[in-house]
Amino acid sequence: TGLEGLRVVSERLRKSFEDYTFFFEDSAREITISIGGCAIPPYRFSNLEEMIRQADESLYRAKETRNRVVCHQVSDE
């Protein structure tokens, strides 16, 4: 998917965790997640390591403030 689709799906997933109450050992727990992603134009999908590196960097940026989505778009060049 493109960058906007990545953001929509990631935000929907993040929000579903935020809104759900988990139960563990008779206690209610609220859990949040941080998501990092990378969108790459289809014709640029030749470097898997670069895609993983970009997604990993986005995840670390998301974790800095927690419970957020950070997405990166690889340029069309």
Structural class: alpha+beta
**Beta-sheet strand percentage?**
15-25%
Spatial shape: elongated
**N-C termini distance:** 18 Å
Unreliable parts: none
How would you describe the overall organization of this protein?
This protein has about 80 residues and is an alpha+beta fold. The chain has helices spanning about 5-20, 50-65; strands at about 20-25, 25-30, 35-40, 70-75. The strands form two sheets. Strands 1-2 form a two-stranded antiparallel ribbon. A two-stranded parallel ribbon has the order 3-4.
Summarize the structure.
By secondary structure, the protein is an alpha+beta fold. It has two helices and four strands. The strands form two sheets. It has a two-stranded antiparallel ribbon.
Give descriptors for this structure.
77 residues, two-stranded parallel sheet, 4 strands, 45% helix
What's the SSE blueprint?
Blueprint: H1 3-19, E1 21-24, E2 27-30, E3 35-39, H2 48-65, E4 69-73
Parallel strand pairs: 3-4
Antiparallel strand pairs: 1-2
